[in-house]
Amino acid sequence: MVRIMGIVNVTPDSFSDGGRYLDADAAIAHGRALRAAGADLLDIGGESTRPGAQRVDPALEQERVVPVIAALAAEGAVISIDTMNASTAVAAVTAGARIVNDVSGGLADPEMLPAVAASGADIVLQHWRGPSADMYAQASYADLARELVAELEARVAAAAAAGISPDRVIVDPGIGFGKRGAQNWQALHALDRVVALGARVLVGTSRKGFLAEALRGEGLRGEAGVAGEVSTQRRDLATAVTSVLAAQAGVWAVRVHDVAATRDALTVWRHWNDAEDAT
Fold it and tell me: Taking 50 as the threshold, does the pLDDT of residue 179 lie above it?
């Protein structure tokens, strides 16, 4: 069964739920709620990576996330730390995190790969072409699928060179990062080629702008009767659909805000497949 990674943003400025869980107690409660809804893992981050976001000092990032990680890990949660800073990764693993989710694929901090190698944690290497403050500057591809796979292969090789064994590596095609509109659909369409790399694959489409663009393109009016408005509820439904399609492509896990909707969608998909196998 595909794993569900629930998102806990301990930030004031994440694009979807910024500020709601900045307080440690609120973040811990949210993590518990996500686990109760069916999350297999929790991805905890203290720095927003939304388009245009500015970097956060690692000391502040650690102040935000370490208490949350320690509390939830003590309750048995499998924790991933969403960070581009090696020092935060080390602090998070010390507090109980088992996975380092680096959206830069180890490119933002040259100490990241050696630090993770020494920590014993697994690592998510995401496809990345530059910081959030200017993430679309390199959103130009002659052959997106080929370039995406080649650049992920290069990050896997860099991890191996740093001493991280292949069984500890997870790759992520970086939906929404350095990719505009239709380029995200091209990346998702290439998931079979990403899966063929042999590493576990994580996909995160949750509530992202390309889903809203697709829904707006249908010409439907929003819930408030305003053309072009796409609610969180509609984005979550679209996310659940893409999660099922990603599961069909063979991914290891999906990263989502609304765990319950995705869990329900994946359950229906599993029953569909089980009935086919029984015939």
Answer: yes
